[in-house]
Write a structure and sequence with these properties.
Length: 227
C-alpha cells in the first residue's frame, strides 16, 4: 500500500508514468533523485487536488482519503476479476491462458489438459524476429493461495527435455522459494505469471475487461462463462 501511495504521488507530480502493461518508469531519465524535495512533492500534489477557493476547502485527511480510494479502486477490479475466474470451469481457464498466449504473439498454442502429463496444460511456440523459435510448455493453476517451490519442481520435471522454457500461470501468487526455484541456475527457466499480472494482461488485451476513457475498469463476468 505504501509503494502504491508513493507511486500515485510521484505520478501526480509528473515524475512517474505507467503504461497499460503496468510498467512504471521515470518520465525523464535525467531526473536527479537526490535533489527532489519530498515535502514540496506532497504540498504540490495536495494543492492540485483542492477545490477552488469559492468551494469548501478539503482537509489534509480528506485529500489523503481520496488518494487511498483511487488506489483501492485499482485493486478492487482485480479482486473482482480473480473471483470470477475462480468460478469458471478448469478447462475454461486453460483456454483463457491459451488466448492470452496467442494475444501475446505465441503461435501453434495448444491446450493438452492431460492430467497424467505432470501438470502440463498446454504448449506453444515463441518466434523472435522470424528466425529463432522457442518451444514453451505452460501450466495454468487456479489458486487462491501461494504456489510453492514443489509445484515448480514438478512442472520442470514434466517439461525436462521436451521444451526450451516453461510458463506457470496462476490466479494466486508465488512464494519466495518458488520464485528462486523458477530461476535456479543449471535448470530450464520458468517464467511466472501471478494473479496481478494475469489481470493486467486481460486488461491490456481487452479480454473480458473493458477500460473506459474515464479510467473506470469494468469486468464482464459473462465473457468468462462462455470460454
Amino acid at each position: 500500500m505504501r509503494l502504491a501511495w508513493a507511486r500515485t504521488y510521484l505520478k501526480k507530480y509528473g515524475l512517474l508514468d505507467n503504461s497499460s502493461r503496468g510498467v512504471w518508469a521515470l518520465v525523464d531519465n535525467e531526473i536527479e533523485i537526490s535533489k527532489l524535495d519530498s515535502d514540496k512533492i506532497l504540498k504540490t500534489v495536495r494543492e492540485q487536488t483542492r477545490k477552488p477557493e469559492i468551494e469548501q476547502k478539503k482537509t489534509k485527511k480528506e485529500v489523503e482519503l481520496e488518494i487511498v480510494e483511487e488506489i483501492e479502486d485499482q485493486i478492487d477490479w482485480k479482486e473482482h476479476l480473480i473471483s470470477i475466474i475462480l468460478k469458471i470451469d478448469p478447462s475454461a481457464f486453460e483456454r483463457l491462458c491459451q488466448r492470452i498466449l496467442r494475444e501475446s504473439g505465441f503461435v501453434q498454442v495448444e491446450v493438452t489438459g492431460k492430467s497424467s502429463d505432470g501438470g502440463i496444460d498446454g504448449k506453444g511456440i515463441v518466434r523472435l524476429n522470424g528466425f529463432l523459435s522457442f518451444h514453451v510448455f505452460f501450466q495454468s493453476k487456479r489458486y487462491k493461495g501461494s504456489v510453492g517451490s514443489g509445484d515448480i519442481r514438478d512442472f520442470r520435471g514434466a517439461m525436462q527435455g521436451r521444451a526450451d522454457k516453461g510458463l506457470f500461470i496462476t490466479t494466486g501468487n508465488f512464494t519466495r522459494e518458488a520464485i528462486k526455484e523458477a530461476t535456479r541456475d543449471g535448470t530450464p527457466p520458468i517464467d511466472l505469471i501471478d494473479g496481478d499480472l494475469l489481470c493486467d494482461k486481460l486488461k491490456e488485451f481487452n479480454l473480458g475487461v473493458k477500460t473506459e476513457l474515464i479510467e473506470e475498469v469494468s469486468v464482464n463476468a459473462e465473457w468468462f462463462l462462455k470460454i
